[in-house]
Sequence to fold (188 residues):
Amino acid sequence: MRFSRFTSLSLAAALALASLAACSKGTGAPADPWPDRIAFDAERGPDTALEVSGLVNGGSPAYFSLAALEALPRTEFTSEDPWVPGQARYRGVALASLLDALAPDAEARKVRLVAANDYAVVVALEELRRLGYVLVWEEDGRRYDEFPDERNKGPLTVAFPHESFPGVDMEEHKLNYVWWLARIVVTE
Fold:
């Protein structure tokens, strides 16, 4: 395992923490503070669930197993999935906190979220922070690998507590619910 040092909070990180604090009513805020260091692999392994690359970690990719992600401070929120009827309780990690722990470069402005089938969306890092995007592995107390095929959203998916943000156009943002998330690339 390799460890990355959590650097001083930048203005953007401070804004993200303020945003998460504002959403602390079960809407994506981490339950516990993040550690000074987070564990990840320096190389892709057989249990890799997520690769984070680009303008983070000094330019070196970071590879996470599902177990490594589950060991990080978790967040939970209830929201309606824009693709599947009904409310669900989601559990995962705050995506902005994960990226901040990987020390993004000052030039980092966008995040490319890539699914296992190469479906990809680009989200402004500021928007990702403002809306409290969460890297989710569990829905209603069940891990995604326990769902039947038609509801299995991978080991990881991206969701956010959109009901906490009145005026958010879900027709625009629902495409950012990336199922079977495999890679995150941070860019300018």
